[in-house]
Amino acid sequence: MMDSTKTKKAIAAHDQEELPWEMIEEILSHVPPISLVRFRTVCKRWNALHNDKTFLNNHKFTFRFILTTKSKIYSVSIDPKILVRELTLEVPGTESHIKHLVDCNEFLLCGMDKVAAVWNPWFKQSRWIKVNASQPSSQVVGIGYVNNNMRADEKRYKTIGSYWTDHSEWETQDFSSEVWKDPKLTPIQGDKSLKDKAAIFFTKCGVSLHGNVYWIAFYDKTDTLYHLLNFDFSSERFYAYFCDLPCGMNHPRNALVLRVFRGDRFSLLKQCYKTKKIEIWVTKNKINVEDGNDVVWMNFRTLSIPNFPGLVSNEYSSSQPSYFIDDKRLVLCSCDETGHPWIYVVEENKLISKVQLNDVFDPWPLHCTYFPSLVPTMDSTKTIKEIGVQDQEQLPWELVEEILTHVPPISLVRFRTVCKRWDDLFNDKTFIDNHKLTFRFILATKSKIYSKKEAVVWNPWLKQSRWIKADVSQSSLEVDGIGYDNNNDNKMRAEERRYKTIGSYLKNHSVWKTQDFSCDVWKDLKLKARRGDKSLKDTVTNLFTRCGVSLHGNLYWIAFCDKTDLLYHLINFDFSSERFYTFFCDLPCGMNHPRNALVLPTKKIEIWVTKNKINVEDGADVVWMNFRTLSIPNFPGLVSNEYSSSQPSYFIDDKRLVMCSCDETGHPWIYILKENKLISKVKLNSVVDPWPVHCTYFPSLVPVPGSPIEEALLQCWVCGSIRPDPLRPAADVFDGH
């Protein structure tokens, strides 16, 4: 709330503290990834959240597998259910299909004929990597970066490619240029007895860890143990022998897959094609990228599941399964013998789920795991600022609204300055009505502290309030309502209006006073009644109830000259001119029984509405029309007894009539009616004390002008201090003089 004693900065800081961190995470988990980058600059904690693996994994748009066929690309989400979506590779002019797919941590490497693409599918960004045109067999095989402890979006990324002459030749390219460089590669560190042997790649699909790329390799297919070799992008050198693996391959249909485990280690999955037994090893410690001598493998899990399929479909298939380990789950993707992809979820040696991906039509898709990343591909033609603008435009407005409906009201004010459209949204009644924390009734019971000498102006949705001090010279003065000067209503924002209160006390007749919110001084009104029925000018006007209704800054009360009047009427107070209209307009009915709630003795409910908008300066054109008449069997009376001053509270929402009233024992109920039927009837058992005061309330983001009060003090006072004196008659006297 925009308190006059607080700066906007102080209010924003206060509201930020009020917003639970768990809720911030929940809200941001609904924001499309392409737009999350806009929020990185909010504060250091928000920026850190964007690098939090747990947050990214729990994001509602997260997917964990990518599959590509000759014509289409798909993502596969695992939680809360397996969901397949079609993706588009964001590279203009892509014609050839992807022949080589590698998960390189932040990015995917998509190899095609004579070209490759570096792609962030979560962020929907990509860039071309042109292969060496002088070498027709050139192929991009991996992505890494210079490991200098910089932020991900500040790292110096490079690609590595190879081509064949009479042996494999290697070359690198910096993302900042399109020039391929021969680094004159010299293998370092390894088993000297193997120094003259050529290492053979088991697969060209490497694994990226801390900027380096690692491949499974062997010297001979009959080797008992395969090993890892790696390329260090910082020194641009190969480790021809980094470390041994805990196993080798003894059949071409065995599965053997290397993955990153917990962000800083390796895992290795092997399946025996005969027994279908799966063994998973993980490295005991974090990987030291400069030295593989301390790598120790340990068995993480051994799975023997009856009827579990083979993960390599046939002897000639080059497709290894893709997998990741998530807590206690093992999730795999592989193709069956007909080439159709499946997702398998295994937990505690049991096959929990087995789902065929029927949305992937073409057989034998390429596939790999993918962990979401917010690192831009950094196309040299785009700046970070341009990326942010592009992303802002791509956030669907409906989703903006949905996200903001989860933000606590006290924090919404922080986002008013984002743009004009957001500011307008917070004045949109439909948005506020659909907000997840909206409430429509307020009930107040007796509190431990009770005062009649002061009142509170309260915005319960924003949890802000201020005292309205009564006139100490008049102990019987009560605050009756709030309004504002509406001379410039069409031009001023709600929080810029000049708010006032009106109060009255009884002398030999009712005396009225006003107080501006900008001060605590009460001012006597030299009231002159304007406009009315001349035949009533000398007649005393009685208020049917002190609870008025505010509209466009003015207050309106139901009144009568005599309780037997067939028609009651409205009087109103104009805060701009500080004058009463002793007779604003007639109502379409009167009261003929003290237990009527402007409701007939038959329990029949009639609702009238004014045909046109109310002109606050003139009630002569007010026309009432019947909106709804309801006759519902066994419907209760809304005024509990003849001596009760409590009228029902209600609002009309589309086709519903929603009401709150007390039964004859004083317990409150909510009634929902639709099309002449009682849809719902709920007793509010949480309201313990009987005979609560109640009213409707429509949430508002309008600040309470003036000084704030302590929240603890508000909890003690607010319910009792706004409660009218139950011993005072509901009808008060206004004589119009």
Automatic annotation (TrEMBL):
Matching InterPro entries: A_thaliana_F-box, F-box-assoc_dom_typ1, F-box-assoc_interact_dom, F-box-like_dom_sf, F-box_dom
Name of the molecule in the record: F-box domain-containing protein
Pfam entry (one): F-box
Domain F-box: 13-59, 389-435
NCBIfam families on file: F_box_assoc_1 (TIGR01640)
PROSITE patterns xrefs: FBOX
